[in-house]
């Protein structure tokens, strides 16, 4: 398959131009988020970044003491991106928590081109904003901290990103998993769960938050269909949910045109979207962004003001130089190339699974991302299988770690991103052996 040229035009036609409902954002804040107020020093810091002031307010170090005064980054294609002394001084200095203005402006422009968020309209009550975070994980964690408190439940797919599940544990809050299939979250189950909430979880408050990995899902490799996206968004509207759209693999969908994001479909300003450069440029940068309605992002920024402050200045500086060097179109060409790389890896991992695991497991070929999600036949729990494979020096992750309550799972996540074809052959051959051993062991013990 050759990749069709990327086009953003599809996004603008997707949103049903319905009248927005006013979202009462305050209703969603946890008690700790509601108590959060601006940190005094960060208020002063706003002026420290403006011209025309004598700056005796902040604890800024003097840039004349910074030993590094320039940098060059050599790209794979041989071109060089440079940072001169003025830029180096800027990116090594403290910045506002939301990120460096030049990178933010580039990204805001880009998000508007790709997703056309409704809140971009100056008359929209939600008002679009964007903050830069230390990876998507920081953003998701900040959002959950803002929206969820002790005793709360949030909704997610029945198998979802394991780290997001772990983020709720310290808040004594839990996720309820909604059935999902190869089209994404199953709307009927979402409706059923919300309608029968008081029977399912007597005495607990109805969820206000739905977390979803909508493209090339981790761990499932599933990309939600457009129909499901629209349906789930409609349910979120009728039950007044905030959607946390974690779209780490958005550009790694294996076909074009890209499925429109939930942010594209949003009407009310109830989608908080998480994008990351981890899979598109490099995870060591720790640069990601949260886009959505300003009232939510404003609270998250207050948390950041007293936490990590900003994502690394040098990473942001390097990234903005790189993005300017590419421009929007160059960046889109770059991500198409990255997608093609993983698409070929996915195909090769799927062929390898067919050779070794046919009859032992079933799976749907991934439609994006970096994972092949297997359902092992004849077992209820894959923990022992994964453990035995580890003893033979092959690493997989057992399905249980992706379920909201660590339920037993017959699934295994195979990550094919960094594995060579030869290692994939060896790894899946070991997996086939341990599955056979385990199935025969279980059969002997049930006779
Ligand atoms: C679905 C999903 N969300 C978020 C992340 C975290 O990304 P980051 O490295 O930007 O924190 C990952 C990383 O694997 C992921 O798979």
CATH homologous superfamily title of the largest domain = Type I PLP-dependent aspartate aminotransferase-like (Major domain)
Our measurement of the CA-to-CA distance between the termini, rounded to an integer number of angstroms, reads 49 Å
| CA radius of gyration | 23 Å
SS field, number of helical segments: 15
The percentage of residues in β strands lies in 5-15%
Count of strand segments: 15
Count of distinct structural domains:
2
Give the % helix: 40-55%
Q: Name the helix and strand elements from N-terminus to C-terminus, one letter apiece.
A: HHHEEHHEHEHEEEHHEHEHEEHHEEHEEH
Mean pLDDT: 93
Largest sheet: 5 strands, mixed
| Bound small-molecule species | pyridoxal-5'-phosphate
Give me the secondary-structure category.
Answer: alpha+beta
Main sheet: strand order: 3-11-10-9-8
Q: How would the global form be characterised? A: globular
Overview in brief:
This protein has 447 residues and is of the alpha+beta class. 41% of the residues lie in helices and 15% in strands.
If you had to describe this structure to a student in words, what would you say it looks like?
By secondary structure, the chain is α+β, with helices and mostly antiparallel strands. The protein has 2 domains: 22-62 and 89-316, 3-Layer(aba) Sandwich (Aspartate Aminotransferase, domain 2); 334-446, Aspartate Aminotransferase, domain 1 (Alpha-Beta Complex), CATH 3.90.1150. Helix content is 41%, strand content 15%. The chain has 15 helices and 15 strands. The chain has helices spanning 9-14, 31-35, 40-48, 85-92, 101-115, 135-147, 162-168, 187-195, 197-200, 226-238, 262-265, 294-305, 313-357, 383-391, 421-446; strands at 71-74, 80-83, 128-133, 153-157, 174-178, 180-181, 184-185, 209-212, 242-246, 271-276, 288-293, 361-363, 371-376, 397-398, 411-415. It has a 5-stranded mixed β-sheet with strand order 3-11-10-9-8, sandwiched between helices. A 4-stranded antiparallel β-sheet has the order 12-13-15-14, covered by helices on one side. Strands 1-2 form a two-stranded antiparallel sheet. Helix 13 (313-357) crosses helix 15 (421-446) and helix 14 crosses helix 15 (421-446). The longest helix is centred in the C-terminal third of the chain and has 45 residues, at 313-357. The radius of gyration is 23 Å and the shape is globular. The termini are far apart.
């Amino acid at each position: 398959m050759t990749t069709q040229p990327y086009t953003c035009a599809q996004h603008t036609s997707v949103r049903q131009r319905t009248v927005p409902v006013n979202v009462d954002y305050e209703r969603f804040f946890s008690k700790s988020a509601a108590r959060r107020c601006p940190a005094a020093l960060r208020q002063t810091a706003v002026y420290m970044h403006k011209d025309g002031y004598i700056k005796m307010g902040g604890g800024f170090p003097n840039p004349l003491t910074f030993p590094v005064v320039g940098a060059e980054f050599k790209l794979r294609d041989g071109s060089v991106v440079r940072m001169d002394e003025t830029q180096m001084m800027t990116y090594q200095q403290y910045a506002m928590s939301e990120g460096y203005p030049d990178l933010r402006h580039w990204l805001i422009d880009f998000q508007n081109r790709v997703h056309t968020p409704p809140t971009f309209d100056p008359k929209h009550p939600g008002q679009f904003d964007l903050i830069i975070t230390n990876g998507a994980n920081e953003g998701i964690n900040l959002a959950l901290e803002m929206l969820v408190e002790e005793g709360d439940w949030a909704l997610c797919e029945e198998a979802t990103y394991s780290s997001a599940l772990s983020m709720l544990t310290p808040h004594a809050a839990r996720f309820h998993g909604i059935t999902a299939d190869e089209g994404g979250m199953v709307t009927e189950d979402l409706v059923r769960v919300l309608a029968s909430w008081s029977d399912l979880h007597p005495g607990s408050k109805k969820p206000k938050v739905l977390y979803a990995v909508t493209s090339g899902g981790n761990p499932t490799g599933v990309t939600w269909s457009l129909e499901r996206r629209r349906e789930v968004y409609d349910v979120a509207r009728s039950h007044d949910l905030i959607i946390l759209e974690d779209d780490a693999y958005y550009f790694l969908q294996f076909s074009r045109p890209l499925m429109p994001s939930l942010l594209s479909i949003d009407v009310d300003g109830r989608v908080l979207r998480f994008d990351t450069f981890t899979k598109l440029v490099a995870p060591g940068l720790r640069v990601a962004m949260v886009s959505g309605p300003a009232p939510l992002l404003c609270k998250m920024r207050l948390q950041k003001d007293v936490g990590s402050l900003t994502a690394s200045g040098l990473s942001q500086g390097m990234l903005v130089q790189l993005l300017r060097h590419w421009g929007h179109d160059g960046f889109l060409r770059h991500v198409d190339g990255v997608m093609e790389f993983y698409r070929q890896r996915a195909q090769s991992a799927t062929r390898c699974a067919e050779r070794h695991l046919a009859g032992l497991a079933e799976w749907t070929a991934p439609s994006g991302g970096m994972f092949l999600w297997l359902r092992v036949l004849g077992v209820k729990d894959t923990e022992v299988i994964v453990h035995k494979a580890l003893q033979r020096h092959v690493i997989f992750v057992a399905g249980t770690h992706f379920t909201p309550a660590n339920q037993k799972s017959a699934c295994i996540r195979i990550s094919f991103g960094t594995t060579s074809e030869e290692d994939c052959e060896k790894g899946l051959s070991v997996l086939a052996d341990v599955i056979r051993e385990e199935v025969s062991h279980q059969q002997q013990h049930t006779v």
